[in-house]
Design brief:
The complex is a heterodimer of chains A (268) and B (412). Chain A has 268 residues and is α/β, with parallel strands linked by helices. Chain A contains 11 helices and 8 strands. Chain A has a single domain, classed as Alpha/Beta hydrolase fold, catalytic domain (Rossmann fold). Chain A has an 8-stranded mixed beta sheet, with helices on both faces. In chain A, helix 1 links the parallel strand 3 and strand 4. In chain A, helix 2 packs across helix 3. Chain A starts with a strand and ends with a helix. The mean pLDDT of chain A is 96. Chain B is of the alpha/beta class and 412 residues long. Chain B has a single domain, classed as Luciferase-like domain (TIM Barrel), CATH 3.20.20. Chain B is built from 17 helices and 11 strands. The model of chain B has no long low-confidence stretch (mean pLDDT 94). The chains are: A alpha/beta (268), B alpha/beta (412). At the A-B interface, helix 7 of A face helix 12 of B.
């Protein structure tokens, strides 16, 4: 386990403080987590050997700070809050990376920070929408825990998946609090994208000038892998990397292959 | 004591294996798969007939509510029903209790201020204005709004509606959720400054605080039985006391299904299948559909998940009529038995307004009409005077009465 440190940075003119998890050394990667919340996985751990990972808790999802979400009313608030955080952290030309919900945020930040983003990595991002491959946040939030696991993963028996999704024992207070945190985290992220995460990225994505990598699991049941090409067509300097035997969670399901692709992209 | 007839307007004829075939009676159940359009016409008219029958046979009020995309109860606009009821009961003292049109489902929410004012005008001042927060699933899934904003919108919509009713002059509203350049509603309600307000809830302490702060009447709408309700209701009364307010029973409204038979023994046969249909089929819903993520405040979510004050809905499947009846999820039996049980509940919970549900689940129209008649004849007369000797004033009952409303010209 890496030596994670946390830094609290004021954003939005002091109305909000964002808790940023920091680990590693080397060029900075600003990482936006998925709707499931911040989780220090092996993918981030391995990357932190050569890069410094800056991974903020999405406001409202940091332990003990549920009310922070009240400071964000719109997606734009979150983009500006993260832009402020990048400035406060003193990151010049950071690599920006995001997964799923965080992928959409990463794309929005890169569109906003035109020419101030070194590279962009989008792992199964939400944010675009087409009728023929529709998906909704509402449906995602309406899933039971077993259904959610079924939709998220290609192979639920993968050890890293089991570890990530392990709930405490049924009927215990630990489980109740684990459920509380899980539900609350999804509620916080859903606030900005409900009921359909088509919040205008398609009108801003052309601004992304950073060289970009789009990663998608070939067996993603939550969002069709066909969106990978939509992102590729919308971002001028971009490439797609697909992962076989992989669902919506490449960092857990294909850790090494994802790391390999990301390292190649970053060293290119 | 005031006793009103509540109606959910359910789909009464779902197939026996419906709950095996479908995950939910709510939100995702395809209408065309299970519903007959001609039957739906009958249900709406039967519902109105049953409520009008109740009004004409001795109930003090009639009550409707709003839900969406389900078989449980689909009065999607309770004010349409309330409008028919107001006209059909003209010349009586029957309260038109809207429980209610849900402000956060509408944009702008002043539509509620306008429609309630219309209803209060048509009914000549007999409206009770219900202010529900709204079911999380209705708000998030049927109407597509972010669950985390529901309570904030509710507070703002409430403030806007009240100001729209009370203000003498047009005003601009620049809120967090709503912006209107000139609020100047026509008509204003018949009752001045506005109809009495009741707020339904499910024992959320934050709703109690809101009700007590504004001096409204709280309606505890629970399906978990009067026995289980006791400690919740006590929590409400403790808060009332802490706020330095009196224990006026009219601050409290309670809902319960009721079935009257000729004898106690006949109750199970007459009402058992209908209450089981209600709990097993109409409340067939996965928990995550009931409570979308973000609907509850962080503290309420923590409370519900760690304390589990209510049983999970799927536990209903292991219960039958006997359990429901024993736990006072409903009250059935002869008129004497029902009267005695309701008296006990009224006194135990300190309730001034009782909402009875004489049609529940699959109960057909004829049986519902008969049940309403039996309640009216055999139960209501014995309950109405229950608080009379204590001298409480019902400040939450509408002021309009048949033949007493005067125009300004008449008054002068």
């Amino acid at each position: 386990m890496a030596n994670l440190t946390q830094k609290i940075v004021p954003v939005l003119g002091g109305k909000l403080s964002i808790t940023v998890n920091i680990s590693g050394s080397g060029p900075p990667i600003f990482f936006c987590h998925s709707a499931g919340g911040f989780y220090w996985d092996d993918f981030l751990e391995n990357l932190s050997k050569d890069y410094t990972i800056y991974a903020p808790y999405f406001p409202g999802t940091a332990p003990g700070k549920p009310d922070e979400i009240e400071q964000l009313e719109h997606l734009w608030d979150a983009v500006l809050a993260y832009d402020d955080a990048i400035e406060e952290l003193g990151l010049e030309q950071p690599i920006i990376m995001g997964h799923s919900f965080g992928g959409m945020l990463a794309a929005e930040i890169a569109a906003h920070r035109k020419n101030q983003t070194r590279k962009l990595i989008l792992i199964a991002p939400i944010g675009l929408w087409k009728e023929e491959a529709s998906y909704t946040v509402a449906n995602w939030c309406a899933l039971s825990f077993p259904e959610m696991k079924e939709v998220l993963f290609h192979d639920q028996s993968c050890p890293r998946v089991i570890k990530r999704m392990a709930r405490p024992e049924e009927g215990t207070e630990e489980q109740a609090l684990w459920d509380r945190d899980f539900i609350w985290t999804i509620g916080c992220t859903a606030k900005l994208i409900w009921p359909i995460p088509d919040k205008g990225l398609c009108k801003r994505i052309h601004r992304i000038s950073a060289k970009s990598l789009i990663v998608w699991g070939e067996n993603d049941k939550l969002i069709s892998p066909s969106y990978a090409n939509d992102f590729k067509h919308a971002i001028a300097d971009s490439q797609v990397f697909t992962l076989p035997l992989c669902g919506h969670e490449p960092p857990l399901e294909q850790t090494e292959k994802l790391e390999f692709a990301v390292r190649n992209f970053l060293s290119d | 004591m005031k006793i009103a007839c509540f109606h959910l307007m359910p789909y009464r004829d779902l197939e026996p294996d419906f709950d095996k075939k479908y995950d939910s009676a709510w939100f995702t159940l395809p209408f065309e798969d299970v519903a007959d359009r001609a039957m739906v016409s009958k249900y709406y008219n039967w519902t109105l007939d049953e409520l009008i029958h109740a009004a004409h046979s001795g109930f003090d009020g009639v009550c409707t509510n709003e839900h969406h995309q389900n078989a449980y109860g689909f009065m999607v606009n309770p004010n349409m029903m309330g409008s028919v009821l107001a006209r059909a009961t003209r010349g009586t003292d029957t309260a038109i209790i809207q429980m209610g049109e849900t402000a956060v489902f509408l944009n702008p929410p002043i539509r509620v201020a306008e429609e309630y004012a219309m209803l209060d005008s048509i009914s000549e001042g007999r409206l009770v204005a219900g202010f529900p927060v709204g079911l999380g699933g209705d708000y998030a899934y049927s109407y597509g709004m972010a669950p985390m904003e529901q309570r904030g919108r509710y507070r703002e919509a409430h403030d806007l509606i009240l100001k729209a009713w009370k203000s003498d002059k047009p005003f601009a509203w620049n809120g967090k959720y709503y912006q209107l350049p000139m609020v100047n509603i026509w008509p204003k309600p018949s009752q001045e400054p506005h109809p009495p307000i009741w707020v339904p809830g499910n024992a959320s302490p934050s709703t109690w605080d809101f009700v007590i702060e504004h001096d409204y009447s709280y309606c505890y709408l629970t399906y978990f039985g009067a026995k289980g309700a006791k400690h919740m209701v006590d929590g409400y009364w403790d808060k009332v006391e802490e706020a330095g307010k009196d224990k006026n029973p009219y601050r409290m409204t309670y809902l319960i299904p009721v079935g009257v038979s000729e004898t106690d023994e006949q109750a199970e046969k007459e009402y058992g299948p209908h209450i089981e249909y209600f709990y097993h089929k109409l409340l067939h819903m996965p928990e995550q559909l009931l409570l979308p993520p973000g609907h509850m405040t962080h503290s309420s979510l923590t409370h519900v998940l760690t304390k589990r004050p209510f049983p999970a809905y799927d536990e209903f499947n292991d219960m039958g009529f006997k359990e429901f009846n024993d736990r006072d999820y409903l009250v059935t039996g002869s008129a004497a038995t029902v009267t005695a049980k309701l008296k006990e509940i009224i006194k135990d919970l300190n309730v001034g307004h009782l909402l009875l549900l004489p049609q529940f689940g699959s109960m057909p129209h004829d049986k519902a009409m008969e049940n309403i008649s039996r309640i009216s004849e055999g139960v209501l007369p014995h309950l109405k005077g229950i608080w009379d000797d204590e001298g409480w004033e019902d400040k939450w009952w509408p002021k309009g009465q048949a033949g007493v409303s005067q125009t300004k010209k008449e008054a002068s």
